Amino acid sequence: MLFARATRFASSARASRSRWLGALFALPIVLCSGGLQDEELQAPAKDIDELIERVGELESFRSSFRVLSRDGEAAVMHWTCAGDDQVHVQLEQDGELNDMVWISGGVMTMNTKDERGKPYVVGADLGELLDQYVAVNEALDEHFPTADMAPLAMHLTFTAVFDVGDDRTTLSVGLSDRAGPLFGWLAAAREDEPEEQEDEALFVFERTTSRWEISAQTGFIERAWLGAGEDRRPAIELVELELNLEIDESEFEAPSWTETDERIDLGFARTMRETM
């Protein structure tokens, strides 16, 4: 594969430092402001495709998700997004707020640590890598067309994934080399029929091992549960959301990458490029 179909950094809810995820849901506090008018927010989308189109018109947002664990641990992940490719991700846990990821101009930067706990700042210019593959990808598309393949176009994608077997929830943000919905859960929802219910402001998807409640007004996950039957438990809740607000460019300024061995840099770039 010349360029990963969904290159992303996965902010897993079970990182090497700790497991996140926990307890009972509180009612989410959702604050909406700016470009979306009140009447638009009050009119739920009729289907997922309409919601995807509405989300695609967002100019910016701040969102905070609480990720909950079976053993009572919890963390809050903050996503700040502006424009087509500017993102800042922070993790709040045990009273500490830590920067995790920056994306700007096709460049991804992240904080990480080695096995001894030594901090590193690493990154890769995914936009530059994509430019190198444009001609090759276009030739492949021309000679080996795939009917449902989205056009080549780098874009942001946010995802939330349940791993029932490993009992974890993963919230991710990254860059994809194919056009698609801003939120991965909306793309996945196209494959399922929502549950019938009285509340038209929610799309509810009931699956064997999970349940999702997606706002029919904003496209954001509001709540999600993991597991089935008596083992079902809360996994994600939206606690704060602001739409179409002014965000200072300085929020997306990433620190300089740590000087490391060239093999590490190449390996990291390759991992980011090939991650699915």
Written account of the structure:
By secondary structure, this protein is of the alpha+beta class. The chain is 18% helix and 38% strand. It has five helices and 13 strands. The protein has a ten-stranded antiparallel β-sheet. A hairpin with a 5-residue loop joins strand 6 and strand 7 (119-125). It is globular and about 55 Å long. The model is unreliable at 1-40 (pLDDT under 50).
Query: What is the first-to-last residue Cα distance?
Result: 11 Å
Question: What proportion of the residues form beta strands (DSSP E)?
Answer: 35-45%
Task: Please estimate the helix content.
Answer: 10-25%
Structural class: alpha+beta
Major sheet attributes: 10 strands, antiparallel
Q: Which stretches of 5+ consecutive residues score pLDDT under 50?
A: 1-40
Work out the helix count.
5
* Overall radius of gyration: 19 Å
Short description:
This protein has 276 residues and is of the alpha+beta class.
Strand and helix layout:
Blueprint: E1 8-12, H1 38-42, H2 48-55, E2 60-68, E3 74-82, E4 86-93, E5 96-104, E6 107-113, E7 119-125, H3 126-143, E8 152-163, E9 168-178, H4 184-189, E10 202-207, E11 210-215, E12 221-226, E13 233-243, H5 262-274
Antiparallel strand pairs: 1-9, 2-3, 2-13, 3-4, 4-5, 5-6, 6-7, 8-9, 10-11, 11-12, 12-13
